[in-house]
Specification:
Number of helices: 20
Shape: elongated
Structural class: alpha+beta
Helix content: 25-40%
Number of strands: 28
Low-confidence stretches: 1-19, 32-62, 190-202
Distance between the termini: 104 Å
Length: 714
Amino acid sequence: LRQLGRPVVGLRKGGGLLGRWEALGGGGFRYFCQDTKEKVIDVDGSSADLDKDIDLDFDETRTEAKPAPEAKEKKKEGAMESNKFQAETRRILDIVANSLYTDKEVFLRELISNASDALEKARYLRNTDAKLSDQDKDFEIHITCDKDKNQLVIQDFGIGMSKEDLIKNLGTIARSGSKEFMQKINDVGSSEVADNIIGQFGVGFYSVFMVADKVEVYSKAADAEGDIAHYWTSTGDGTYEVAEAEGVTRGTKIIMHLKEDATDFADQYKLETITDKYSNFVGFPIFLNSRKLNTVQAIWTRSKSDVTEKEHEEFYRYISNSFDSPRFTLHYTTDVPIQINAIFYVPETHTEKYGMSRLEPGVSLYCRKVLITPKSKKLLPEWLRFIKGVVDSEDIPLNISRENMQDSALIAKMNNVLTKKLISFFAEKAKKDPSAYLEFFEEYKVFLKEGVVTDFVNKEKIARLLRYQTSIEQDENGTAKMQSLDDYVSRMKIGQKAIYYLCAPNRESALQSPYMETFKKNETEVLFLYQPLDEYVMKNLQNFNGRKLVSIESSEASKEHEKKDGNPSSEVGDALLKYFSNALASKVSQVNVTDRLHDSPAVIVDHDSASHRQLLMMTEQRKIDLPKQKLEINPDHPIMTKLYDIHEKEPVVAQLVADQVFDNALIAADILDNPRDMLPRLNSILETCMRPQEQPEVEKAEKAEKVEEVKEAA
């Protein structure tokens, strides 16, 4: 029910009503079903059946209701005045009615917006002490539908229209009077009223001809004397008729005779769905068949201090169709460089982590509280798709149908403003409440990292929001702390020029990596990256705060720790360099001697990561052979010194060892494609190790002498 966001929901199957749910003020729900029992379901899931008979039809007493206005209007007897639409042809009217809008249902949005404008104008007149006719009528919009008559009626108690207004506003396409009214009140300094006027182009009324083959309008001007009112009708053929009317209340009543292919617009449930989608935040009550629809307020138009946490929670659940509470809330208002009223919510969790489909954008665009674009893809970058909320701006340049935005440069500016605001909002949260931010980061870190990779303009600002474990920082319990890149930079050693990182499956693997040996010895801090995406983050970021990001698996990583005289030449080193270059000629492109290693005989450097290779193989749909690698060897390691001793005397064993050293380096780099290929070699090495060794001649002589002594004693 919170997902649906309405106080009453009917459950239907075919044409019959199965039952309905109703939200209770205390957070529970009441269900009315065909067994004539009333079931109350509380938030905690407990339930109780109450013995109370109910009617299966909607129980209007349980929601705010108001009787529909009584239909007293009628055209006066007498001649009808026939006119042609001024300055526009029938072809233009056909375009407006049949080609301008992408979806027929928006006609209801247009008519409700026009009604809202009329009510706003009437309220302005009342506030300026102008005398209004029918003072007892509240500022409301009433919608009624009749399936039997195939009619839809929309009525407002707004400013209404005189005969001249009908001819001027309805008789001329692209004229609604709203723009003229806004100019008039701006001239006298009432900008607040101007802000509430929705209409801009005046073509919305003609959208009725998408669904109606005949339209009748009764209207009475707010300043009309007595019962002077008028009737207007047209079939959309390029002409219209006007006559006097009687029994008309202040405002305007539009009667639509629906086309055969539009009879579904006489269905109450469909009308409720459309109104809820586009016009739920209109500032005046909307009643459909006597029941109030717009029960949720447009809280983004109110001051931040006036909106309670409970209101935010209810509004979030309404727009996000969810049951949880928002993790973070940002209520943002600005007039520079563009007028924006916005509310953003960060949900507790998201569904992409469960392997479900990619999230759709969660922010909708409104203009003066009327929906323009649901789940807009242009308001925020793709990486912020987890954000839920609304953006309302009066500066949005819309096309003539009010369905799309026209000025792409202005929309790009709005995107930039909102993105920067959200980034600064997250940074502020990280500073004020680190523990809450870390919980948020653990839930949404994939999105932030995606932002670094895809948002070139803001990538360094987003990078400040990332958190990683490092090789040094731990809390008092010995648990690795999550650190920002700024934290790392603040602790860099004097003379350290780069930010070092290592991609590894987990912390234990990272600490045991041979690449860490020289960094441990020199106490240089290293960032630990546990997700495959992290490598793409670092490669796209490249630099942070003027420091280069360097993988310690690269040859560049050891430059700061090399001896000042470089790697001095030695007989063992030179011999092994030549030997490995020949023995592994089909596997290596380059072999170098290094002093970065202490406990390992060799490492691979400047290699593609395992995740990158897997991505390539998935893309190519085939196995990709491992390219030749760069090998760095440690000639001082016991394995290497022993290999130097035997590489000429026992070439077969030396080759086995060289191949195994290379494969071990591939394993350390996590790029060995198939470990099973080295099993035969390992068996051969084990067999060689287990083979009895020949004893030296001296040992043989001593042993023989002892044997003779034993014999003589015997």
